[in-house]
Structures are given as C-alpha cells and as structure tokens.
Amino acid sequence: MLDTVTRDAISVYKHLSMLPAGDLAQLRRADKTGCPAFWQLAAKFTDTVDKNPARWIYIVASLAEFITADGMGRGRTLTHDFKAPLGMLLATGGIQHQGRTTKPLLSEVRLAHLTKLRGTQRCQQFHRVMKMVKSRSHPPYRINVGELAWAILDEKSGFPDRKIAREYYRHVQ
C-alpha cells in the first residue's frame, strides 16, 4: 500500500502529462510563490500539495521538467518506476547499465552537497539537479516519483539521503 505522499506524487505526475505546453512551461519556471497551474494542483491535492506548497512547488517543477508536451495538450511522460531509484537516476541518467558507470551524471561532490542542504536551498538545488539530469540524458526517463517527493519533503530523518547515496554508489565504479 502506498503512502499518501507517494500516491499523490504519482497522481500529480499523471496530471502533468495531460497539461498544455503553456501550463508545463509555467510550472517549470515557477518560483516559491507558485503559478496558476500550481495552485490548481494544490486545490486538487489538499492532503499533500496544499499542506506544504513551499516544498511541493519544487517537486512539481522537477516533475514538469521531464514532461514533453506534443503541442496538442497531450504529454509524453517520464516512466514512473518503483525499481528506478533516484540515486540511479543521478548516477546514470535513469539508464540501467549491465555494470557500473565510470562517469556519473552527477559528480560525487555535487551529490554530497545536495544531501547536506536543508530548507529552501535543498528544494531549489533538487530542482536544478533534475533540470541538469534532463538536459544530459535521453527519454524515456525512469524515476521513482515518490522517492523524489520524499527527498525534497523529508530532510530531517536522513533516510532519503542515505537511500540516494546507496543507490548512486551501486551504479558508480
């Protein structure tokens, strides 16, 4: 059974895939004040997005980076995959290699910096990293959407950071 955050992250991601290109562009550029397309999502997802909009704006913006609109209001989505951990995405761009990669997508230094950040800086940096991942990798993108949401939402327990690092190093030599 999925927790509320993971369930809503998947639902938000599916909702994004149906948005027109203009709304997706608005979401990609949204800052901490949000935008009309974000506030419509917040009204729909009252248990999660609406309760923590300061963090969810960055989750939504990060997911919107991976949605490519086709110009007709339909989108091509990234592939949500529970077996594609965030650490793997940061190491390989979401592509499973037979072995390990010698040149990770995100450097070890940037990974260490990312996992140490807290507050708004953490949210902003995760969004920047997702933009970088999209620019350096190719579709189909595979990512565990719930794990991305938790990485931005749960900075205190350290669990998301440990999981990201563990999966990152499983795919890097």
CATH architecture: Orthogonal Bundle
How much β-strand is present in the residues?
Answer: under 5%
Residue-averaged pLDDT:
87
Shape: globular
How does this structure look, described?
The protein is globular, with a radius of gyration of 15 Å. 57% of the residues lie in helices and 5% in strands. The chain is built from nine helices and four strands; from the N terminus they run ααααβββαααβαα. The strands form two sheets. It has a two-stranded antiparallel ribbon. It has one domain: Peroxidase, domain 1. α1 crosses α4, α2 packs across α4 and α4 (53-65) packs parallel to α7. The model has no long low-confidence stretch (mean pLDDT 87). The protein has 173 residues and is mainly alpha-helical. The longest helix is centred in the C-terminal third of the chain and has 18 residues, at 119-136. It has helices at 4-16, 21-29, 36-44, 53-65, 86-92, 108-116, 119-136, 145-153, 159-170; strands at 68-69, 75-76, 79-80, 142-143.
